[in-house]
Specification:
heterodimer; A: mainly beta; 7% helix; globular; B: alpha+beta; 2 domains; four-stranded antiparallel sheet; two-stranded antiparallel sheet; 2 helices
């Protein structure tokens, strides 16, 4: 009997204390949380900030990331399945992803296609099916998918292993036709409506197109790319229509792609005499970029040798292509494989280093390091303008 | 010295009186059986080719034939260094590299055939680029998915076959 009374008194005390606590909390938060709207989906701004960049993981996604914030917030993702490559339009509110899928996962009917996404919603608003199951399947790289004709057309590099270029009308969302480029690879926009392509003979072939996507002129340069002794990387950066291609052993080759045909300009050494003993060479994947002050930024590896041309680089060297001299040397906090620069007044240097994206200012100070969860391939970065 | 001989004789006699010839065989047999069992214990072991002229572990990136490989090793997917895993198809069109065999010090032409249409999941991913050249020279490029002439062009893994001795032995 006495025990029962004790229990009752204890229970009453507990109730009283709970009530007291609830009362105190309710006084601190007098209103309940408001009811929230169901089915809300975030929207992106019509013009993305220049601190954002698309990161192509070369596997299963293309991630839109705010690299200018310490949180490195993910703003959205685009689907990618096999060798997907990205183009972001400045003239239409659209984003294009060239991709390949099979109807049963890794088997079944193959479809190559360009997905068209709305810039604000990232909803797929259209697609262009690419015929012939011939789109080049390889690690995402520059030159697989490019604009021409003021972004009214796109060019898709095909490899079966016959080399072709599919010409696509992006305005009317249809395929116009194919251009054969035997022995050549990748596309670099050239002139008003055309492209150039690097050839295994060490030349560059330029093709101009008519409004229907048919070839109207072809011209080939002299041999300038020594593929056996010191080949050019296929990664380039562009400054006012001049493309700069680094070579395996440390040259840089300028090529003027403003006219109908590629014009081979001079090449010059990247490694000053004082550093030759360090065996410095360009290396990585997305190896170089350029800023709005017309400077080139190049990933450089110490003690490079045959077979290390895709390995991470130790420093970024900055060059003035007018004087052909190195103007800065920026050591990296950890070796990096891909490099890009954001645009705008407070430009940032992005360096993918393993599963990290290191964000530096253009003087080489590390501002933040963002995670790249699950990343184990090669990254192609596309900062927004 | 005589004391030492006496002590040794006493120990041996004691040992002989406690043991039989058969028990000696039992102990020796156990030791031999134990030694033979040690390699069978479930510990991770390197898989050697078993051929002294082809040294190394085909499930590791540092195996000599993989000097220009970029991809997953079929040895880790149910295939081998020369065979695709079940459920895949081997591409007849390939890229080639030249690798030096550390055993016989010869350079060999290696054909890197991709196996296609299976289940890729990134196991035993290797990246070596000796002799790799830009995609402009596709036959020496390891970034391309070499699934040509197969029903599916979806990449699974890569094998490395000896095609012959290279002409250039430098």
């Amino acid at each position: 009997m006495t025990q029962k009374i004790v229990f009752r008194v204890a229970a009453a005390a507990l109730n009283l204390s709970f009530f007291a606590v609830s009362f105190a909390v309710a006084e601190e938060f007098p209103s309940p949380l408001p009811t929230e709207t169901l089915l809300t989906i975030n929207k992106l701004p019509a013009k993305y900030p220049t601190g954002w960049a698309f990161l192509n993981y070369s596997t299963n996604r293309i991630e839109l990331r705010n690299v200018a914030s310490d949180s490195g917030a993910v703003k959205g993702n685009l689907q990618s399945r096999d060798s997907a490559t990205l183009l972001v339009s400045d003239t239409r509110p659209e984003i294009y992803v060239a991709d390949t899928v099979w109807s049963r996962g890794t088997r079944g009917v193959r479809t190559d296609f360009i997905s068209i996404y709305d810039r604000e919603t990232l909803n797929p608003v259209g697609e262009i099916v690419l015929p012939g199951a011939k789109r080049g399947l390889m690690t995402a790289m520059e030159g697989m998918f490019a604009f021409t004709d003021d972004q009214k057309m796109a060019l898709v590099f095909d490899l079966t292993p016959q080399a072709l270029v599919t010409v696509v009308d992006l305005v009317n969302r249809k395929v116009l036709g194919d251009i054969e480029i035997p022995g050549c690879a990748l596309v670099y926009p050239t002139g008003k409506r055309g492209f150039s392509t690097l050839c295994s003979s060490g030349t560059m072939l330029s093709v101009q197109l008519d409004a229907n996507g048919a070839a109207v002129s072809r011209s080939e340069t002299k041999v300038f790319n020594p593929l056996d002794s010191d080949p050019l990387f296929t990664a380039s950066t562009e400054l006012a229509g001049i493309h700069y291609f680094p070579s395996f052993h440390g040259r840089i080759q300028a090529i003027d792609l403003r006219g109908d045909a590629a014009k081979i300009l001079s090449d010059w050494p990247l490694v000053p005499a004082a550093d030759i003993s360090g065996n410095w060479r360009p290396s990585g994947w997305q190896i170089l970029a350029s800023d709005e002050h017309k400077l080139l930024y190049i990933l450089m590896q110490r003690n490079g040798h045959e077979g290390t041309h895709k390995e991470p680089a130790n420093e970024v060297w900055v060059y003035d292509p007018t004087s052909k001299t190195r103007v800065h040397r920026l050591p990296l906090v950890r070796p990096g494989t891909s490099l890009a620069l954001t645009h705008g007044p407070e430009a940032l240097m992005l360096v993918q280093a393993g599963e990290r994206l290191d964000v530096y200012d253009l003087k080489g100070a590390l501002l933040r390091s963002l995670d790249l969860p699950g990343f184990n391939t090669r990254m192609q970065m596309e900062p927004l303008r | 010295m005589a004391q030492f001989d006496h002590l040794a004789e006493k120990m041996l006699r004691g040992f002989a009186s406690r043991t039989s010839r058969r028990s000696i065989f039992t102990v020796l047999g156990s030791l031999l059986a134990g030694a033979a069992t040690l390699p069978l214990l479930p510990v991770a072991r390197a898989q050697d080719t078993g051929n002294l002229q082809d040294p190394g572990d085909p499930s590791r990136c540092d195996y000599w034939r993989y000097c220009a490989i970029d991809g997953s090793l079929c040895s880790c997917y149910g295939g081998s260094v020369t065979a695709c895993p079940p459920g895949t198809e081997m591409s007849p069109v390939t890229w080639i590299g030249t690798c030096r065999n550390p055993a016989d010090q010869r350079n060999y032409i290696i054909s890197y055939n991709d196996c296609c249409g299976g289940v890729p999941w990134g196991r035993c991913a290797c990246q070596r680029n000796e002799g790799d050249r830009p995609v402009v020279r596709p036959q020496n490029n390891n970034e391309i998915t070499w699934c040509f002439g197969t029903q599916s062009q979806s990449y699974t893994c890569t094998v490395a076959l000896v095609l012959g001795v290279a002409i250039d032995q430098k």
